[in-house]
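Tip: read the tokens left to right.
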């Protein structure tokens, strides 16, 4: 299966990706995770990306495209992949199309997780993750267990201000990517409101 997980920040892409990977065993390509790892490693890419990420802005297309093209060439992507958070702009979608065409690969599905903006800010500002396991929690909707609660951390771009910037970028720069996939007939829209289990059930139904 070769698919894109699409949706605004805080739609539940990371949470659903973790669940789907257990089931479908494909490579998970989250550009957000890759960029955060680069920032943590203080690599050249990380240093170039950090400021944009903190402000909730998009990292320049060329940097992200190079990262994805390199990652897609790795052997674990041959059996399928799940792109999460990419493409986020029309030039990124074009770069992806060129890469896939060169490799003779077609996409099966673009899954759009739909969540209204009014819910996104609450979801994002309450989001926490466990630095040891990567598990994602929410202080109100999915609180971490007592033995994990003491060590959860908040992403530096999960502030209300950065969240509003990220949402604005999503509507202005990312949603214009969808029409091309819609024309190809591979877009499925999923209601992303509800518990993680409810959304997973909808996602699995859509995939099958
Ligand atoms: P995410 O974890 O997907 O919410 O991404 C976190 C941040 O990483 C975003 O707010 C951007 O600053 C950056 N980022 C992730 N994916 C991309 C992308 N495809 N294009 C540009 N910037 C990205």
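Filled-in amino acids:
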């Amino acid at each position: 299966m070769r698919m894109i997980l699409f949706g605004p920040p805080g739609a539940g892409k990371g949470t659903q990706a973790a669940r789907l990977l257990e089931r479908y065993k494909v490579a998970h390509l989250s550009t957000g995770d890759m960029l955060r790892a680069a920032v943590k490693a203080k690599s050249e890419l990380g240093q170039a990306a950090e400021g944009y990420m903190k402000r909730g802005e998009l990292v320049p297309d060329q940097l992200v495209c190079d990262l994805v093209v390199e990652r897609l060439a790795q052997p674990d992507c041959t059996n399928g992949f799940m792109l999460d958070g990419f493409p986020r702009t029309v030039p990124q979608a074009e770069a992806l199309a060129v890469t896939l065409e060169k490799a003779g690969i077609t996409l099966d599905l673009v899954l759009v997780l739909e969540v209204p903006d009014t819910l996104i800010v609450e979801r994002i500002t309450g989001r926490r993750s466990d630095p040891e396991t990567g598990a994602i929690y929410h202080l109100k909707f999915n609180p971490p267990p007592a033995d994990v609660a003491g060590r959860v951390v908040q992403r530096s771009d999960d502030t209300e201000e950065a969240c509003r910037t990220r949402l604005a970028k999503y509507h202005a720069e990312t949603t214009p990517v969808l029409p091309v996939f819609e024309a190809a007939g591979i877009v499925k829209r999923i209601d992303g409101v509800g518990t993680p289990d409810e959304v997973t059930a909808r996602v699995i139904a859509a995939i099958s």
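The first strand starts at residue 2 and ends at 6. Residues 2-201 form a domain with the Rossmann fold fold (CATH 3.40.50.300).
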